[in-house]
Design goal:
Layout lengths: L1 H19 L5 H8 L3 H11 L6 H24 L4 H23 L9 H17 L1
Amino acid sequence: MKLISGVASLLAGAAFYLLFRTKSLLGFVLLSRIGAEPWADRMRSHSSAISLPDIFIYALPGGLWTLGYILIIDHIFGNRSRMLRIAWASIIPILGIGSGLLQGIGLLPGTFDLWDLVCYALPYIIYIVII
């Protein structure tokens, strides 16, 4: 169940990106290269009338990807020690939070957003509490 939930979370994050983010992002270049740009454009046209708060468009996908990663890692290492599971589950949240903080101080390109940090940290904190 964790594996299915993890994959679903990754796909949901990708859907937010596909449907609501600008086409200048790397993912759209990849879609174009594999010939899926017309399909993506059709999906985007269906969602163009939907207006979402910025947190759903910009921060939530990272949180969903973090959650998906944690669930998949827990599926893979579920029979191992708690510390090993936490160590592996920490990688993406730490990278996400770290990159956000580096953006905040100008050492990494991008836009600092506190909601990004929250969306990276929340699935990890919940995971730590649960296990």
